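Assemble and predict.
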Amino acid sequence: MPVIRHSSARRRTALALAVAGLAAGATTGAGPAAAQPKAAPAPAAECSAAYRIEQKLTTGTTWRMCWRYHKEAGLVLEHISYQPPAEARPVKVLATARLGQIHVPYDDGRNEYSDLTQAGFGQGLMDLAPGECPGGTIKTVRVPDAWDPSRENVKGLCTTTRSRGHAYRMQGDTANKVFQKQGKDLLVYTVNQVGWYEYITEWRFQDDGTITMNVGATGTLAPEDYDAGDGRGWPIGKGAKDYATSHSHNVFWRLNFGLDGSSKGKVEQYDSKVSSPAGGRPAPTNRTTRTEVVRELAGDARNMRWWRVVSATGKNKDGHARSYEIVPGPSAKYPGRGYTKHDVYFTEYDKCEQFASDNLPDCGAGHGKSVDKWVDGQVLEHPVVWVNIGFHHIARDEDQQPMPVHWQGLSIAPRDVTAMNPLTPAELADQNGHRE
Ligand SMILES: [Cu+2]
């Protein structure tokens, strides 16, 4: 972010503070996250109560985690565990999860920003109005090394629940018996302002064990970007005027898995190949192959390709290794930089490797500054997963005003974490595997 946009961010921050003052009467009181009963096995005290998020959803699944706030990366979630109704104890999923960068290159080649490390993403944490955390709890966040001392404590972290629609539906043996469940999610989110944009960083913890992470860009288009005179923009004023310069938002997530409490994990890639009918078969065939990703990898999404991280230690009650599958959302991959050329990077854990581009810590001479440089042949024992989801933003008239949220992100979905559907009703609990 150039200096000019920095100053606009600061100006707007003061405004936001005034608005927040009006909402200051809103308490961080009883929402579902606070009100829910403290159920049986107490989680390990990995953090103090103020930094703990624990939510038992109405469908019986409990999510537990700790949160903290990083001055550049913003919200960091740690020690994330999942306990579906039939599990006696929490299953650890992630040791750490957070954003790894938001890279914003403009189509005219004149500007390129690393929003987390250069543009004050973490510093731009916004106060939330009570109405934007419906039914939930807004926690106060201390922003480390706050540039603006009056903005050190921000009512900026919402935890709440939301209905998801059908978790499943199945017609029973008789016409009047329908097994159906309406899914419920825990949502955890912050809003961070960068220049004229506001990014919603949303984490959705589903009662079926899926974690969906999205960044939503909203706020307003930067007025100084209305200058695309070289055919690289879209007119958003009246007639052939006010061409907003097109740009990309390449968002990285950094996921440090800790399945079953162990940092040791394996990565697998699956590919399927469909062939024409042959050998007297009436239909095409499909062969799926597994490739063990033994060493660090810069991976590219492809039709019928997927990856999973497999626990080296934990098994479910069927004796199958627990794993989480990576399910990227739609992505417009930006080939302009080495670190944006690939959809996913699996790197061996190195605590110095913190940001997908413009890595801030000094990791010593010759240590690359971006994630693509860290893929250098190391054996994966403790894999860190970096997922790159790009959005090419060609503005449209509807982007004024305010700009509607445009979302981008991914899910990680449990694969063999439980032996059956984690929300299986008691009547169907014996239906595991073949049945007559
Ligand atoms: Cu944009």
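The longest strand covers residues 153-171.
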